[in-house]
Amino acid sequence: MQVKAGSVRGAVVVAVALATTLGGCAKSGDGDGKSASSASPTAQSEGAGGAATASGGSIGAAGSACALPVRFDVAEHWKAKAIDAEAELSKASKGSDGDLTGSLADAFLRQGPVTAACEIDAKPAGHIGFLRVWTGKAGKADAGSVLREFVAAEGNVSKERYHSFRTAGGLSGVEVEYLFTSKLLGETKKESALAVGTPGGPVVLHLGGMDTEEHEAMRPAYELAKRTLELG
Q1: What is the number of other CB atoms lying within 10 angstroms of the CB of residue 147?
Q2: At residue 35, does pLDDT exceed 70?
Q3: How far apart are CA 14 and CA 8, in angstroms?
Q4: How wide is the angle at C-alpha 12 spanned by C-alphas 207 and 108, nearest 5°?
Q5: Tens of pLDDT, residues 95-106
């Protein structure tokens, strides 16, 4: 496809706009526990070296920062923000650069069989990265198949390790740890994700991070979400 100069400028604009949407903003969203719907204030998740991550509240229920088919605790100081993927895709498709902006939007907002629904920003807690929530349509395949399609769609992954788990809330799911290699940066980092099935469709939680060190530092927040995960 030939790309005109105007298209390139439009692509950059859309990429920046979507990066803002998916990259989060510490000033927006209300996913810290004080403004999210309440959860057990004493809930904690043990991280590497025994460090505990306190719960700041829960998201997922109607009226919380992100309405989802599930609910779970968010680590203290992390900020949640809902993503209206359909609205963003619609805006992109009506942009002046047509298919180019639409394809960029699709790349940011869809991954395999699921669509971005919520992101939880770690910056207010002193980390660089996000815990993102992706949702799919009801009737999709089992959690394991959804998770494998999600990882495959990310591309440039290796050393995937899958295993099943069950939450205290009674949800069964599949989890994976893997390595992602950025062709642009030429760097490899660790990432984690899990998937569960719900009557409303599959839900995927994904933890990335700037690098493996940041990923590991944020892992207690991911474990807190996993441990408290239950149907919404």
Answers
A1: 27
A2: no
A3: 10
A4: 30
A5: 655 554 667 777
